[in-house]
Amino acid sequence: MVVESAEVLRDFPDAATLRRDFPALTQSVHGHPLAYLDNAATTQKPEAVIRAEGEYYRRDNANVHRGVHTLSERATAEFEAARAAVARFIGAAEADEIVFTRGTTEAINLAANAWGGANLGAGDEILITELEHHSNIVPWQLIAARSGAKLVVAPIDEDGNVPLEDFSERLNSRTRIAAFGHVSNALGSVNPVAEMTRLAHAAGALVLVDGAQAVGHLPVDVGGIDCDFYAFSGHKMYATMGIGGLYIRAGIAADMPPWQGGGEMIRSVSFENTLYAEPPHRFEAGTPNVAGAVGLKAAIAYLDNLGMARLAAGEDETLEYALEQLRSVQGLNLVGRPAERVGAISFTIDGIHPHDLGTLLDHAGVAIRTGHHCAQPVMEHYHIPATARASLGLYSTTGEIDQLVAALNEARKVFSP
Ligand code: PLP
């Protein structure tokens, strides 16, 4: 749905070829080839990322920004090169607009605490949507409780879209920030983030976009979206766990106080008066995950080499195939029919609890996720406790979808022989 053109995909390696770059995908599970369809939870890692982190530890490992010795200088150069790579990858104007964090959760907590802590007060409003992951709900609830601000929620419709008129209606002169996902992890809905940003800005609010489910699937351009904050996780874009970031538009970070104190984030410390470093270092207290940043840079190089637009087009074909095949399974109910979808498909099967389904599928070598996907309000919206969710990555094949569908049909036989 994102880019539809055979032309775009000319010479693009097929998923079966790309799989060879990912060592974890070559294994069998319970005697079956692994069909890894849990990419919304985390993606597998290409050899290039694993190698980059290994080489970093074998050769360059040192603490950053503190040493004058060669290894420290090398580690610092690699860390800062990773920052520049991230900035370019997501369309930020400057490397210093990127703060490294452990991932999306920490990035949103940073924004809520550092920006929210300084700028929210009684009577102010924070607008989110019903589609959000808990990571884009709870940090705002915490800062709302502390500041006296009010959390306002824009609803989703039956298809799992955020209607713009409902979103717009909830914006007013009290709205200080609107925080919404780029892509829903529960339903795969793609939000019209540029339009939502425009509406929020017109009301005088800042915008945070939760990009956790977008960065590995779509070309992201924070400049084009025009958002003020963009949060993401490396492990959802083929890098390792424990690294991610927050884009903060230039100019906004300068007025934000730190949210964690410690080493790295200061200019000078005395008992009388501590001065803070400039952003982004002001928000990076303590020793960072340098190896993770090195791996993230390698993941970006891998994705750049494929081209995000082509990758999106390839994945979209597999997604369409998956939707078509899943519709053929008797008793299967797709949850949500978003106008634009990326990555994830949620469903239930009549008479089978999603958790039982997940276990049966695992025995057939198929890894999917079952549960509320850290999006309980979405489950509540559909009056269900949980769904089964199949989610794709750049290496997902139609063969894996066939394996999923065959396993679903077998599971149905177990429950209604
Ligand atoms: N936001 C969305 C939409 C997600 O899907 C996730 C993780 O699944 C997160 C936030 C949290 O990401 P992390 O656990 O990497 O911090």
Q: What is the CATH architecture assignment of the largest domain?
A: 3-Layer(aba) Sandwich
Report the total helices: 14
Coarse morphology: globular
Largest sheet: 7 strands, mixed
CATH level 1 name of the largest domain: Alpha Beta
**Residue-averaged pLDDT:** 96
Each distinct ligand? pyridoxal-5'-phosphate
CATH topology of the largest domain: Aspartate Aminotransferase, domain 2
Q: Which bin fits the share of residues in helices?
A: 25-40%
Calculate the terminal CA-CA distance, rounded to whole Å.
38 Å
Unreliable segments of 5+ consecutive residues? none
Number of strands: 17
Beta percentage is: 15-25%
Structural class: alpha/beta
Q: How many separate domains?
A: 2
The CATH superfamily of the largest domain is identified as: Type I PLP-dependent aspartate aminotransferase-like (Major domain)
- Order of strands, widest sheet: 4-10-9-8-7-5-6
Please tell me how large the radius of gyration is: 22 Å
Q: Key terms for this structure?
A:
417 residues; alpha/beta; Aspartate Aminotransferase, domain 2; 2 domains; 17 strands; 38% helix; binds pyridoxal-5'-phosphate
Structural notes for this entry:
The chain is of the alpha/beta class and 417 residues long. It has 2 domains: 140 residues, Aspartate Aminotransferase, domain 1, CATH 3.90.1150.10; 256 residues, Type I PLP-dependent aspartate aminotransferase-like (Major domain) (Aspartate Aminotransferase, domain 2), CATH 3.40.640.10. The protein has 14 helices and 17 strands. The strands form 5 sheets. The protein has a 7-stranded mixed beta sheet with strand order 4-10-9-8-7-5-6, sandwiched between helices. A 4-stranded antiparallel beta sheet has the order 13-14-17-16, covered by helices on one side. Strands 1-2 form a two-stranded antiparallel ribbon. It starts with 5 loop residues before the first helix and ends with a helix. The model has no long low-confidence stretch (mean pLDDT 96). The site of pyridoxal-5'-phosphate has 13 residues, from helix 5.
